[in-house]
């Protein structure tokens, strides 16, 4: 069974102490995964990230998944084989927590995966999900950047270096650890540093520097004339800096963000597309897909349209439309008008709900701690089911699931609050 080494305690001296102080850690995924399997793992994590620790399972349209990774959208045999490889790959971590205590753990990369009715459902073990969700431990890989890689070793090295980009160095890795990270630890050929350097290190470094948003430089440590350890110096690539997802609400306030979410795009992926392509470009492709018609997987087709810059066909020479065509066009315009009105109503509802939630926050802030506790207990007592109560316990007065009940509750306490 392949192994994944999650290694975070190979830094030394002042650099190691700084890492522990900041609780910076890294998860390294075995190079024994193929390039497409590694890309698949990153796309699955991106899709699940928003609900990584709150949902037990995650789903994504199988054709959309295939298109985002680079599979033929009908090649389910390859997709099944790759999901099986992720479920059979062991992840292991050995790290220091914030109090300096040692923690070791092991988990499969995916606890399960299944394909049914064109949908991929999968899950992570709770322990691994906690590690993946912590940005101090694991950094999401940009799916646009990973598309630039053509070799598994290059992408593996990028992932293992990108975790440490804010420190500026990976810290020293023993060569046997590095071979595991690159997936060549089982090969006698690569026990020779000469072969390892020529066939793995140099080509992978060149691809990272050419294809990604960081620049890396290897450094070697010797014992006598024998190279024993390797580390990589890391800095941003000013020529190819891509983007960082803005975690503020800027993108979320855009109309195009709301339209993406209405199409089933996850929060993080929607913001990534907007950051990567710009608001106007994404809106253009949304309109293109909307007008296309007959698309089986809207999300998958939209992903392809953004990636490959789909353009509408050149207009034909104008001809006098038939009565049937005129009637169809009028019907289409009427439908668009209905959809636009519905969209405007949804936007207005969201804005009104946001206004009222802000008022609720202000009302809560005026209450003393005893009153706040009493308010929560009284509100919980009025909820009908466990799901509503659990959501309120997790999100308090920002619970969108209970928004209507929250407004009614505070309307009774403060009749003029929302005027």
From TrEMBL:
| MF annotations from Gene Ontology | DNA-directed DNA polymerase activity
Residue ranges of every copy of the Initiator Rep protein WH1 domain listed in the record = 19-161
Q: Report TM segments.
A: none
**Gene Ontology biological process terms, A to Z:** DNA replication initiation
Q: Which Pfam families match?
A: Rep3_C, Rep3_N
The family assignment reads: Belongs to the initiator RepB protein family.
* Record-given protein name: Initiator Replication protein
Q: Which organism is it from?
A: Ruegeria faecimaris
Q: According to the entry, what is the taxonomic lineage of the organism? A: Bacteria, Pseudomonadati, Pseudomonadota, Alphaproteobacteria, Rhodobacterales
């Amino acid at each position: 069974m392949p192994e994944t080494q999650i290694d975070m305690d190979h830094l030394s001296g002042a650099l190691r102490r700084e890492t522990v102080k900041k609780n910076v850690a890294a998860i390294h995924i075995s190079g024994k995964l193929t390039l497409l399997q590694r890309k698949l793992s990153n796309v699955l994590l991106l899709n699940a990230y928003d609900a990584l620790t709150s949902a037990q399972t995650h789903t994504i349209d199988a054709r959309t998944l295939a298109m985002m990774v680079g599979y033929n959208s009908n090649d389910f045999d390859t997709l099944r084989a790759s999901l099986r490889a992720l479920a059979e790959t062991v992840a292991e971590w050995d790290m220091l927590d914030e109090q300096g205590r040692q923690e070791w753990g092991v988990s499969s990369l995916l606890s399960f995966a299944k394909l049914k009715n064109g949908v991929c459902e999968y899950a992570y073990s709770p322990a691994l999900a906690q590690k993946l969700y912590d940005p101090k431990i694991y950094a999401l890989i940009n799916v646009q950047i990973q598309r630039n890689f053509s070799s598994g070793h290059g992408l593996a090295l990028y992932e293992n270096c990108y975790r440490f980009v804010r420190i500026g160095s990976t810290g020293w890795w023993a060569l046997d650890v590095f071979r595991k990270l690159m997936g060549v630890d089982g090969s006698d050929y690569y026990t020779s540093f000469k072969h390892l350097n020529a066939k793995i290190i140099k080509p992978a470094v060149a691809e990272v520097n050419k294809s990604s948003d960081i620049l890396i430089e290897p450094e070697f440590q010797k014992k006598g004339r024998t190279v024993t350890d390797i580390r990589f110096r890391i800095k941003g690539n000013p020529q190819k800096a891509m983007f960082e997802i803005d975690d503020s609400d800027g993108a979320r306030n855009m109309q195009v963000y709301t339209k993406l979410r209405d199409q089933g795009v996850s929060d993080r992926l929607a913001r990534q597309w907007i950051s990567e392509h710009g608001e106007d470009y994404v809106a253009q492709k949304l309109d293109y897909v909307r007008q296309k018609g007959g698309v089986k997987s809207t999300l998958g087709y939209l992903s392809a349209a953004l990636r490959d810059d789909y353009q509408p066909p050149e207009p034909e020479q104008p001809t006098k439309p038939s009565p049937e065509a005129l009637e169809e066009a009028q019907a289409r315009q009427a439908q668009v008008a209905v959809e636009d009105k519905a969209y405007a109503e949804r936007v207005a509802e969201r804005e009104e709900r946001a206004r009222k939630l802000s008022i609720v926050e202000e009302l809560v802030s005026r209450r003393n701690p005893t009153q706040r506790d009493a308010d929560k207990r009284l509100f919980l007592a009025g909820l009908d089911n466990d799901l509503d109560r659990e959501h309120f316990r997790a999100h308090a007065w920002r619970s969108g699931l209970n928004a209507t009940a929250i407004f009614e509750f505070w309307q009774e306490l403060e009749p003029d609050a929302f005027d």
